[in-house]
Write a structure and sequence with these properties.
By secondary structure, the protein is α/β, with parallel strands linked by helices. It is built from 7 helices and 10 strands.
């Protein structure tokens, strides 16, 4: 179906007397990657859930490729940090689950599943159960289950937050490769400045229910980015914007 452009137009979310998002507008081009970062409680996860139609705007509209979003779109995958794997199924079975439910022919299920397992570097653990593998491997399996159905939009909610530093970097590298493929429109919520820069062509900085500023990231897709002086400089810039909540 192809990666879809996403637009939020004057979206407000209210819970009783509390405003969580206020007149928020955002445009994300199809096939690009956007990182959303901000302090706890600023509305990042609410924004992501609104893009999945889990939360309905109090006012304003979300558009996918120009069409108003009214229910969870079938060609969208949302991935959480808690993995949500079925403990009684192997890694292979978890990754293949969506294909099986969609009644893909058995050979196509098998071929697609093996391709995803190879791509995410977890084919060697395909016969293990979730309790037998590491947190990073569980997250790769969860991502693989979503990728198997070739979604137009990938929504990621703090997917590396619970991982140790080296495992986190490895998974970030894999996610950067997925983002660079332009096969999906990818939107990730993160608390990590480094991750926001590694994964986002656009970096959206939020402050208390609104977008404080947006940055187009010229470093996206560069090799060995973590060791680049430009990466350090961008980290400093994003940190300053987070602290100030104002464009520079």
């Amino acid at each position: 179906m192809g990666a879809k452009a996403i637009q939020m137009q004057d979206v407000t979310i209210k819970y009783e007397d509390k405003t969580v998002l206020e007149n928020l507008s955002l445009e994300i081009a199809g096939g690009t990657s956007c990182s959303i970062i901000g302090p706890s409680g600023c509305g990042k996860t609410t924004l992501l859930n609104t893009l999945a139609a889990f939360i309905k705007p109090t006012c304003g509209t979300v558009f996918y490729d120009g069409l108003p979003l009214v229910r969870y779109p079938e060609d969208t995958a949302i991935i959480f940090q808690d993995y949500s794997l079925f403990p009684w199924k192997t890694v292979y079975e978890n990754v293949a689950l969506g294909l099986k439910m969609k009644k893909y022919p058995p050979k196509e299920q098998h071929d697609k599943t093996l391709h995803i397992l190879e791509r995410l570097k977890i084919r060697d653990i395909q016969n293990r159960y979730p309790h037998q593998i590491s947190g990073g491997q569980k997250q790769r399996a969860a991502i693989g289950r979503s990728l198997a159905l070739e979604p137009s939009v990938l929504l990621l909610d703090e997917v590396t937050a619970a991982l140790d530093a080296m495992t986190k970097e490895s998974l970030q590298d894999t996610l950067a490769e997925i983002a660079a493929s332009r096969e999906h429109t990818m939107i990730q919520v993160t608390h990590s400045i480094e991750e926001a820069i590694l994964l986002g062509q656009k970096i959206v900085i939020m402050q208390t229910g609104r977008i404080a500023t947006e940055i187009e990231n010229p470093l996206f897709g560069q090799e060995n980015l973590r060791t680049s002086p430009a990466f350090y400089e961008m980290c400093v810039r994003v940190r300053q914007l987070l602290e100030e909540g104002q464009p520079q």
